[in-house]
Design brief:
The chain is an alpha/beta fold and 568 residues long. The chain is built from 13 helices and 19 strands. Strands 1, 2, 3, 7, 8, 9, 10 and 19 form an 8-stranded mixed β-sheet that branches. Strands 5, 6, 11, 12, 13, 14, 15 and 18 form an 8-stranded antiparallel β-sheet that branches. Strands 4-17-16 form a 3-stranded mixed β-sheet. Helix 8 packs across helix 9. Its cofactor is FAD. It comes from Sinorhizobium americanum.
Amino acid sequence: MSIHDLRTFPPGTRFRADIALIGGGPVGITIARELSNSRCRVLLIESGGPDLCQEHQALNAVENIGEPIGRASAEPLGRGYNGSLAWLNDVAPFELRNRTLGGSTHTWIGKCASFDEIDFERRPWLPVSGWPMTREDLSPALARAADLLNLGPNLYDDGLYRLLQTPPDGFDFDADLLRPFFWQFSHERDRRGEPMRFGRIARDLDAPNVDVLTRATVTAINLDRDARRVVSLDVRAVEGVHATVQAATVVLCAGGVENARLLLASNAVMKSGIGNSRDVVGRYLADHPRAAIARFVGPDVDKVARHFNFYGLSHHGRPHFYLHGIRLSPHVQRRDALVNCATYPVQVHAAGDPWAAVKRLAQGGSTGLFGDLATALRSPGLLAQGAFRRLVQKRGMLHRCDELRFDVMAEQRLDADSRVTLSEQRDLFGTPLPRVNWKIGATEVESIKRLAHGLSSEFVRNGLPAPRLADWIAENDEGKAVFTDMAHPSCTTRMGADPSVSVVDPDAMVHGVDGLFIAGSSIFPTPGHANPTLMVLALAIRLADHLKARSERRSVVELRRQLAATGK
């Protein structure tokens, strides 16, 4: 595979490929990887370069007119990042995108899970819900995506218990109210603890049929006069170089905001934007509303952290750790017309945490060598206990903490008025900025409250400490609620069979535009509550399989046409 810089080509260069992929994040790279060493000539087009730079990041600007600005009565929550990634909490809503080869994995922490079976169902209390496939249908692609992400088994419920080295203690939780849920974390195969970086996957890809064009922003998708197929892409560098890409097949892999924006802005032939004859492009914008719902302090922290922590297993000779949390049961979702949501523990480490000191010493990141040594030496018992839990029991270590918090991420009930449109403001290429109007509905709020009250009552009933619920939940005052986006925008180019409520068909091709496909979370029919990376890669692999089969069918048709023309 060759990586090129658009700035090194003469203005007006015309690139040709069989398949053009717009976006060099994990989705685009995964599709390129699946198509490697095939007969297809693939061009992966990335707006940024090998590293983050401010000029390209400025292209992420949006005009935000919705949440979370609408809930500014309380202190902002942030997205939950800490340490070297704490700066991500300050990035404006819907602007946390990485224009660089590797995309979002440049700054992610690797958190992964798959959607639940109920997430795929048509749920009568949730309009336009239902996927054109079941979780079982997607299972083979999920397994391939998990392998790519260096994950363990794709189990995220109590079925995982039988595989764990030492599973969590069993609780008599009401299964009609709460269910266990787990997340796992993707990491590099040769760098334990380092989240997987897809930029490395791209650079290491041995594929003579794949080329990468960096510092190349696609500013328009050009259709033929009948608006039935793509004829070319306009591509520009921030330094002014412009080029054209011609490809029979184009796949948008630019994320939940940019996929919709590019379709809407490419309006030379279809005045309302490509695929938008029914005014659906950009609608149903969802994210994962995040909130802190419960806290523990003092001695209660250790009592709870012993049960809600990391739990490990060995899979194909490699260790994998899963984070233990809780979700609303399918029963209560159906009975009370709620959405799926799950809560997970967040430990706020004390300044004198010995394991944090050991980690800094081991990684060479200590700024106070003697202070960290003293902190570690003062707690031999806690270090010994933590080492036993980690090495023998395959469990997370017990840290010295000031607080244990439970945060929640919720699915959203789709709202057609929650949407991405075009702003009157423009970027340096003259392309309209995305105008983002994210709405958080009453169903999400009620579901989060139900989960919080259920967690509190079931903890007490099982002999665990009672948490301090968030003030807005305890006081039943939703005006004090504080939510943030999780940089998981989805559903803006939904997948479905009905063009009146979807943008792409079940094969992810834009309705009515032959050869134009979309990949990523924007095609989710519903957003689920789980982090999207595993799901988007499974759908990307599924799409790559379809593109390969489609290419083979076209080759057969073309061969037959040529034979017929020669009379053979």
